[in-house]
Amino acid sequence: MTHPLDSSSTIAAVATPFGEGAIALLRVSGPQAIEIVGRVCQPANGRPLAALASRRQHRAQIFSTNDAAPLDDVLVALHRAPRSYTGEDLVELTCHGGILLTQRVLETLLAAGAQPARPGEFTERAFLHGKLDLTQAEAVMDVISAGTDLALRAAREQLAGRLGARVGDLRADLLGLVAHLEAYIDFPDEDIDPDTGAKFLARLDAALATLDALLATADQGRILREGVRTVIFGEPNVGKSSLLNALVGHDRAIVSPTPGTTRDTIEEFINVRGLPLRLIDTAGLRESADAVERAGIARTRQSLAQADLAQHVVDASQSSPTVKEINAEPLPDAPASLLIFNKIDLGLDPCWNAPKFAGAIRVSCRTGAGLDALADAIYATVTGGQVAWNPGAAAINARHQDCLRRARAALVTAREALTRAEPPEIVALELRAALDAIGEVIGGADTEEILGEIFAKFCIGK
Fold this sequence. Notes:
Elements: E1 11-14, E2 23-29, H1 33-40, E3 41-43, E4 57-63, E5 70-79, E6 90-96, H2 99-111, E7 115-116, H3 121-128, H4 134-145, H5 149-159, H6 162-186, H7 198-215, H8 218-226, E8 228-233, H9 240-248, E9 266-272, E10 275-281, H10 291-305, E11 309-315, E12 336-342, E13 361-362, H11 371-383, H12 398-419, H13 424-442, H14 448-455
Parallel strand pairs: 1-7, 8-10, 8-11, 11-12, 12-13
Antiparallel strand pairs: 1-2, 2-6, 3-4, 4-5, 5-6, 9-10
Helix pairs in contact: 4-5, 6-7, 6-13, 7-12, 12-13
C-alpha cells in the first residue's frame, strides 16, 4: 500500500472546537510527541515528562519558547505506542479554554517541532497502524455528526467493528474459494478436488446472499446519515407552513392568510421517533400568473421528484375543487406519501368522509391535536416500507454500496461462467475482482485516492 503519510513526522492540533469554554484539548502524535511536548511542558512534580506514567493525568505548566513566564497550567496525559488511539506515541494537553490561549498553546507546540495536522489525520494514522479498519474510521465521523439516537446507535455499532466483521468474514470466505480454485489451476498433478460442482455454487450463492443483505441496509444508512427527505405540499393556505412550524416546535416559516406567501422551499432538520427528517415546506400548488410564484411551484414539483416521503396537506374544514384527484395512494414521484387532514378543530367537511380517505392523518396545527399520531405514521411509513429496518445494525454508506455492487456483479459473472463450464481461469478472474472490491470496504485493498476522499471530510484534530 502506498500513501503519503510520513511516519517520521509528529503532528499537533486542537481537538476541541475553537471558542470560549472551560477547557480545550490539544493532541500531539508521532515518534517525537513526548520529546516535543517535553521541551515546553514542565510537570508539577519536577520530573521530566518522559518519566511520567502512561494513561494518567499529570499537572504541569506549559511555557512559550520565547517567554520565561508560564503560558498556562495544564493537565498532560501520555499514551505510549502502541496503546494509543493512533498507535503512535500520543500526548494530550488540557488547557483553559479560550480562542487566544488555545491558539498560543498550539503555536508553542508547532514552534517546538510539531507539524500541523491535516483534517482526519489522527484517525487516518489509527487506520494505517491497524487500530481501526476503514469502516470504523468512517464511523468516527458518523458518531460526531449523528443527529438522532438511531443514527448514533448505528454509528456506534459500526465503530465497534460490527460492519467490518461481517465484511471481513465475507472476504475470508471468498479468499478461500479463490485459493482453492487457483490451487487446482496451478497444480493440476496434485489431485486437488476442483470443488466446482454444487458445493462450489452453494458457497457462491451464500456469498451473494450476504452481499444482498448488506446492500439492503444502504437506504437505512442514507436515511440515518442524511435524513428522510420529507416534502410538505398541497394547495395554498391549507396549513403547510403551520405544519412545518408545529413539527419543528417554533415559528420557522411565515404563516399568512394571503395565498402564495411561501415562494421558495424552506428546510429544517428534526427528530421524529429517533428518525432524522429533512423537512421541506413548499409553495402552494395552483395556477398562477406571478412569475416568482410559478418558480416556487416549479421548485415544489422538483422537491417532490426527489422526496423520500411526501406529506400531502389538505384543509379538511373546506371542500376542495381537486378532491377527486386526492387519494391516499403513494405519489408517482415519491416512494411513500401521507395524506394529512389539517384544521380539524374547525370541523370536517362532508366531502372528506369518503372511504378512500379513511387512512388520512387528522391534525390541528393550531391546537396540536393529532401530531403524535402523525409522528407515529411517519415512523411506520419509513421503517415499514422499502427499508429493512434494524436499529441495532450498522448500515453501509454510499462508498460501501458502490464497492459491494461491483463485488456482486463480479460474483454473478463468476457464477454464470461456472454454470456454463467455462475455463476455471475465467471464474478465478471474476472472484479476484469481487475480492478486491470487497477489500476496499474495510481497507484491505485501499488506494491513496479513496483514503484522501474519506479523511478530507473529517475535522482537524480528529
